Amino acid sequence: MSGGDVLAGDVLAGDVLAGPWGAALAILGMMAATFLCRASGFVLMSRVRITPRIERALRALPGSIVVATIVPIAAHGGTAALLGLGITVLAMSLMRLELVAIIAGLAAVAGMRAFGL
Fold this sequence. Notes:
- This protein is mainly α.
- It folds into 2 domains: 1-48, no CATH class; 52-117, no CATH class.
- It is built from 5 helices and no strands.
- The protein has helices at 13-18, 22-45, 52-76, 79-95, 98-114.
- The longest helix has 25 residues, at 52-76.
- It starts with 12 loop residues before the first helix and ends with a helix.
- The model has no long low-confidence stretch (mean pLDDT 87).
């Protein structure tokens, strides 16, 4: 038997994931990780007394996550992306409609890139 032979039961994780069930196993693994993260959050927060300060922090959290996600992308996207982000913020502050703001920002970026900016 050469060093490259695989004995029954001696299957590497890479072989399993590369096989026909690999995608399904990866999806199931991600599903389990997501569930455990969410469930642990509920369990931990059920043991914390929610003070007004903690409530304010929890209410601000979604916005901070959006900012932390969008700003680095815009910074690496160049001038067009930064201007598009500004136009999106302006449109949102004027119209208060998320879809309109997103469309305005995307149209602005597409237009600026079409003209080489």
